[in-house]
Structure formats: C-alpha cells, structure tokens
C-alpha cells in the first residue's frame, strides 16, 4: 500500500501513533516520526534502529517542525504523506466540576495539541506534500459525533479536527488530499491527561485493562476493543496514492458504537456483568 511513500507520523511514540507506524512500515513506507516525549524517542530508536527517522520535537513549536522538515528532506528528499496522531485527553471531567479559573488553561492546552498542532504541521509540510500530490490524514474521534467520549475540551477539539479537515481539503485541493480517521476505544491507549487539571502524569491506560475492555465490548455491536495496529489500514489507505477519490472525509471507525441499541437498552443493561 505504501511502497515508494515517505510518511511522517506526529505523535508516533506510543499507543495509536505507534500502532499506525508499525502498520505503515509493514506496508512499505519510508517512515519519519516526530515525538515529544524523550523516553518514547528512545523507545522508538530501540525498536526500529536506523530503519526510520526519529525526531524529538513539539508540534506546537514552529522551530521544531521546521527542524523535522529539514531532517526529512536531508534523509529522504521528499514527503508523500502526513499522519497526525498526537493528542491529549481531558480526563472526561465535566465542565461544571472544573474550577472556572482553570477552564481557559485547559482549553488552551487541549486545543494547542489536538488542533493547532495539526494546523501548524500541515502548514509547514504543505509544499512538500503538494510536490508529491500527497495526503494528510488527521485523527479525530468518535467523541466528535456523540456525547460522553470525553469532557467538553476533548470532544470540542475533536469536532474542530473534523472541521479543519473539511477546510484544508478545500484549500489544498487538487494536489493534496486531506482526510481523517475517527477511532473509538483503543486498547492500551497512552493518551495523557492535561497539566491544567494536574492529570499530566495519568494516562488512559491507567484504567484497569480488563474493566475497560469489558465495559467497551458490552456497549459495542462488534464486541471487540481494537488494538492500535488494527486502525492502521484505515490510515494507510487514506495516506496512500491508492486513494484517488476521497478528500474532506472523516472515516468513523467506531466498532458500530454509533449504531448501538436504544429501544433494547434495558435488556442490555440487565445483561451487564456485575464485576
């Protein structure tokens, strides 16, 4: 799928981004990963060695993004596809439970990573992608389409990603295709919490895995909690030149969650495991 493609993945050091990176490699991509966390950078270098380009940097920092671009040009000479996978969760904290003095800081933090980071990366990599008639694939979320996939900051940021895809697909046409994948639950997700709520040391994976899996699978028609790698094929197709017809679209990869039962909900609740 990705032979003769140079792919940059932002936030590819763990969780969804790492799973997508592994799949892209299997599909033949020459790969670059931009990662913020120094420990994850070391982990990437340990796993992949010199097979990929690993860059330490922050998607909110223009200088870091320009340095990443320069390293990609030095090593590969071009860029075919950009996959945005970085993100931060908001702990699913209700707006009414957040001290009003912290609301602005929370929204600034979440939006700067989840939305502005995508816009800045797209801007800085645009002409490289245009030269290759390439593609951008961003990460939205099922939370953009239904309540209770996070708190107000997270869900609204993911809604903003959907709108950003719509706008960039219009502005970058006809030479760059822009789409998104909207995952639902992810096994072993490493999304951290926001510093604005003192949750920067917490991760979604801190939730007991068995309990999270049981609750998720009970509420979804497919009854399967996807691994990060299982989302990889969606990203790979949208990032590849094999996709010649889709732009401005968000693929909702939700295990059927938005098609879940309503009238039979009572019956399903009675079957919920007590543990």
> CATH superfamily name?
NAD(P)-binding Rossmann-like Domain
Number of strands: 7
Which percent range describes the beta-strand content? Answer: 5-15%
Q: Can you write the helix and strand succession as a string?
A: EHEHEHEHEHEHHEH
CATH domain fold name? Rossmann fold
Report on this model:
The chain is an alpha/beta fold. The protein has a single domain (6-255), classed as 3-Layer(aba) Sandwich (Rossmann fold), CATH 3.40.50. The protein is built from 8 helices and 7 strands, in the order E-H-E-H-E-H-E-H-E-H-E-H-H-E-H. It has helices at residues 15-26, 38-48, 62-76, 100-131, 152-172, 209-218, 232-239, 265-270, and strands at 6-10, 30-35, 53-56, 81-84, 135-139, 177-183, 250-253. Strands 3-2-1-4-5-6-7 form a 7-stranded parallel sheet, with helices on both faces. Helix 1 links the parallel strand 1 (6-10) and strand 2. Helix 3 packs parallel to helix 4 and helix 4 runs parallel beside helix 5. The longest helix has 32 residues, at 100-131. The chain is globular and about 55 Å long. The N and C termini lie far apart (43 Å). The mean pLDDT is 91. Keywords: Oxidoreductase. GO terms for molecular function: oxidoreductase activity, acting on NAD(P)H, oxygen as acceptor.
């Amino acid at each position: 799928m990705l032979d003769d493609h140079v792919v940059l993945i932002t936030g590819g050091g763990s969780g969804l981004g790492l799973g997508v990176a592994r799949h892209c490699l299997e599909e033949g991509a020459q790969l670059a990963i931009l990662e913020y966390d120094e420990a994850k950078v070391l982990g990437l270098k340990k796993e992949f060695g010199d097979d990929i380009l690993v860059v330490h940097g922050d998607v909110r920092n223009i200088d870091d993004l320009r340095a990443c671009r320069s390293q990609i040009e030095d090593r590969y000479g071009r860029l075919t596809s950009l996959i945005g996978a970085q993100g931060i969760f908001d702990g699913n904290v209700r707006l009414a439970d957040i001290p009003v003095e912290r609301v602005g800081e929370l929204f600034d933090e979440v939006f700067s990573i989840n939305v502005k980071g995508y816009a800045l990366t797209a801007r800085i990599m645009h002409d490289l992608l245009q030269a290759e008639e390439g593609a951008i694939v961003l990460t939205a979320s099922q939370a953009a389409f239904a309540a209770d996939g996070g708190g107000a900051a997270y869900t609204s940021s993911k809604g903003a990603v959907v709108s950003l895809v719509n706008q960039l697909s219009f502005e970058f046409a006809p030479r760059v295709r822009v789409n998104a994948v909207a995952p639902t639950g992810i096994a072993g997700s490493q999304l951290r919490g926001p510093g604005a709520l003192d949750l920067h040391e917490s991760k979604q994976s801190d939730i007991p895995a068995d309990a999270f899996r049981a609750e998720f699978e009970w509420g979804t028609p497919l009854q399967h909690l996807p691994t990060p790698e299982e989302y990889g094929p969606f990203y790979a197709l949208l990032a590849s030149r094999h996709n010649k017809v889709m732009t401005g679209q968000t693929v909702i990869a939700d295990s059927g969650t938005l098609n879940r039962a309503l009238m039979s909900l009572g019956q399903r609740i009675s079957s919920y495991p007590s543990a």
